[in-house]
Amino acid sequence: MKTLKDIFIRFFPLVIVFTYSLYVPYDSDMGWHIKYGEYFFQHHAVLRENIFSTMMAGFHWINSSWATDLLTYLVFHNFSFLGISILGALVMTFTFYFFSKAAHLTFWEKTILFPILLYLESPFIEVSFRGQQLTLLAFAMLYYILSRYIAGKKKYAWCFLPLFLLWSNFHGQFILGLGILFLMLVFYILQKYYLTSIGDERKKVLGEGKYLSLIFFSSLTSTLINPFGLHIYIESLRHFGNPLQQFIIEWLPFDRFSALWWNLMFWEALVILSLGIFILRKNFFKNIHYIIPVILLLILSIQVRRYTWVLLLISIPVVRVFISSIKPKLSEISATICVLVLVFFYGYIIFAKAPTENVTAVDWNRYCDFIGCSPQAAEFLKNYKYTGKLMTFYNWGGWLIANYPEIKPSIDGRMHLWRDSSGYSAFIDYYPFEQNRKDIDQSDYNVVFMTTAKPIHRRLMELVKMGKWKIVYSDTRASIFVRIKNPPNLVTKDRQPAAKSR
User: What domain range includes position 306?
Assistant: First the structure.
């Protein structure tokens, strides 16, 4: 019985994380990730030029998640959509595992925190596997390595080097990881220095600071071991303060008073309550190396939702203090609450969530049920003989790249921040037409393959009534429009392949 109890305490919270994290993959970029990985294994080289879209053809792109593409392709090629679902669930399970080990979470703390965190992370987890998930796992390992170092395992600090070497090849958000590590190391040394009054001990702390500085700069150097060298920093830093981010939902704040905004406010309240407990117990400065990154991301998450998913998990060492403070004093009561919470939450997953997701029965058709694409429309367009310039929906680019090489999309999800050497941006060119801020009738497009949900679709329907365009295919998700009259004599917006990336 004791053995069964130990197994339940140790593994059941992680079983819940795994089963909850099983979602149907519906990342609209998954298709081109698969094709980038396929290209590597077919040509034994990293794809550096844009060969998939008609806009900005030949553009040299710094793909900071190139290794993620390899992993995505290998899993999808061998295990299809189910493999991607399981991979995403495994990544989240190991993420929770390493964070719980780093924060030394008790069974009570895991029982209360895991369901809350899974619910709050749902908008992120439900997309299933992608590079951002690997960034969360990397943060979990970063915190685990640091916790081992603080516990006296000094050689663990050298694990930061292989961590950042891998991280810089799998996802561009490693730069945020470097920033968080720098803050944690600096404030760790500061709190040790000022909490030590003896001169000789302070000298040891300064020596430790030099050791950690060597570790940090070695880790920084290790990030340059990648196919693009220093250019990955240029590509990653382009995301910060880029005005084009206003068109990408991940780089926008949550809508005020929306459900996601209230979720963030709830978590911020928990963090503030926990900080208050640290102050009352006079442990604030002792834990300053954990607290400062949380405060920083607390501020950033209000402005950019993408930081929220990192904030929630790196807050675990802070919020656990509040969760621990509400534990009933009687162990029998706390144990009963834990069992009830876990059993009811697991019951919800098995009997409500899992049948709805049904991750064992997914193909490209069901994938289209999630992102709103139309295989029937694509099949029609593949066989339709048209001439002139084709415009396709931005979110369908990855799906077309993976499934319909005969239909080269005009634009896709890689391209929202691309600019060539002349300053041209395909996204800036495309987006006003999609939103009907520019009239598609005044463009040089002859064929439009578009979702029925965008303003351009309504405009094209008006043009059909005016006899300027015709519908050659239509269903509930997509329509294909063809221009009847020749386009106006416009200077084309297409650009020659860029000589080099910025």
Answer: 62-327
Burial of 440 (0-12, 13-18, 19+ CB in 10 A): buried
Q: Look at residue 20 and tell me if it is in a domain.
A: no
Phi-psi region of 243 (alpha: psi -120 to 50; beta: other; left: phi over 0): alpha
The answer to the question of residue 218 being in a domain is yes
Q: Please state, in angstroms and as integers, the Cα–Cα distance from residue 93 to each residue in 42, 118, 214, 359, following that order.
A: 32, 11, 32, 17
d(CA 466, CA 45): 50
Q: Which tokens hold the place of 393?
A: 């929906």
CA distance 480 to 319: 52
The two structure tokens encoding residue 293: 């990154």
pLDDT in tens, 112-155: 999 999 999 999 999 999 999 999 999 999 999 999 999 999 99
CA atoms within 13 A on the CB side of 455: 10
pLDDT score, position 1: 59
Nearest to 63 by CA among 136, 164, 171, 175: 171
Give CA separation, 454 vs 171, 369, 483, in Å. Answer: 31, 17, 18
| Tens-digit pLDDT profile for residues 78-93 | 999 999 999 999 999 9
- Total domain count for the chain? 2
Same domain assignment for residues 115 and 213 = yes
Query: Mind giving me the DSSP string for 44-102?
Result: SS---B--S-STTTT-B---TTHHHHHHHHHHHHHHHHHHHHHHHHHHHHHHHHHHHHH
The amino acid present at 40, given as its one-letter code, is F
What is the number of other CB atoms lying within 10 angstroms of the CB of residue 471? 12
Q: Are residues 151 and 287 in the same domain?
A: yes
Q: Are 473 and 380 in contact (CB under 8 A)?
A: yes
Per-residue pLDDT, 490: 55
Which DSSP state fits 246? G
Q: Helix (H, G, I), strand (E, B), or coil: what is residue 305?
A: helix
> In 10 A of CB 377, how many CB atoms?
22
